[in-house]
Amino acid sequence: MTASTPAVQSAQANRGTIFVEEANIIGVRTFPGDQYILRISAPKTASRALPGSFVHIRCDEAIPMRRPLSIMRTNPDEEWIEVLFKVVGDGLKALGARSVGDQINIIGPIGRGFSVSPERSRPLLIGGGVGIPPMVFLIEHLLKDEHGWQPLVIMGSEIPFPFQLTHSDIPTPWLPAGTVSTMPLMEQWRVPCRLASLSDFEGTYRGYVTDLAREWLVTLSPAELGEVEVFACGPTPMLEAVAKLAREFGLPCQVSLEEFMACAVGGCAGCTVLVHTDDGPAMKRVCVDGPVFAAESVFAE
């Protein structure tokens, strides 16, 4: 392999941007459904992470394989990041057993994140399950910008949401009466946000996230639709449905993919997906070529 190969060029591009940190857990919150939010002191990652970035965490010294987790929030001044996860397998079970004060090894921030277009001032953010964190991070990022964004956030889950449902007083006249539950953080930030589920949680929209998104999109004029861009993260079937919805309404759409990873820094090529490029089909690594891709490049018609 020579220095001109794509893999080496990618590795060189990431030098100085991905760090190994001995991080400390400074906060643990637990939620029904074996869900956890960890607040982690990680100064280098906190200062450089962007919406869509993730970290690769060593869950326990006895478990060699790390786990990739999306970053949900950062505070560079206080030098912390937050991650949300649901226990699936021994690795995340071990991570969920960690306590405040424990030290964990992380690699981050990793990945190409979301890219927002200033002319698309009505971003539609859709997060499903553990795909919720990147949407929270993206909203927090937009709120720091004085561009005048008019976002709408839609979240979906079939298990209890990883937050206490809150009644929203932000008007959403395009919705059926009674669809009033939101994420407390969104209400605090005064961001319109509504929840979708087939599990009949109080105040949520009964249906899929794409059904809820459609309720809003059909009320927009052609000029307003021209200001919408879609951002999504969640299970692959959900992302495929979001991509189809975006095509139907002629909207640009970016998706953050979820994939099993070994090294997470581009070396093993174990997380490759087929992506359609201008030069034809290509195998791209979710970790460093993504995890964010244009929806049409992954979910072609």
Describe the protein's architecture and organization:
This protein is of the alpha/beta class and 301 residues long. It folds into two domains: 6-110, Elongation Factor Tu (Ef-tu), domain 3; 122-298, Nucleotide-binding domain of ferredoxin-NADP reductase (FNR) module (Rossmann fold), CATH 3.40.50.80. The protein is 23% helix and 32% strand. It has helices spanning 6-13, 43-48, 89-96, 132-143, 184-188, 209-217, 222-225, 236-249, 295-298; strands spanning 19-31, 35-41, 54-57, 67-75, 80-86, 103-110, 122-128, 152-156, 166-167, 181-182, 193-197, 205-206, 228-233, 253-256, 272-277, 280-285, 292-294. Helix 6 (209-217) packs parallel to helix 8. The longest helix has 14 residues, at 236-249. The model is unreliable at 1-13 (pLDDT under 50).
Give a short overview.
The protein has 301 residues and is of the alpha/beta class. The chain has 2 domains: 6-110, Translation factors (Elongation Factor Tu (Ef-tu), domain 3); 122-298, Nucleotide-binding domain of ferredoxin-NADP reductase (FNR) module (Rossmann fold, 3-Layer(aba) Sandwich), CATH 3.40.50. It has helices at residues 6-13, 43-48, 89-96, 132-143, 184-188, 209-217, 222-225, 236-249, 295-298; strands at 19-31, 35-41, 54-57, 67-75, 80-86, 103-110, 122-128, 152-156, 166-167, 181-182, 193-197, 205-206, 228-233, 253-256, 272-277, 280-285, 292-294.
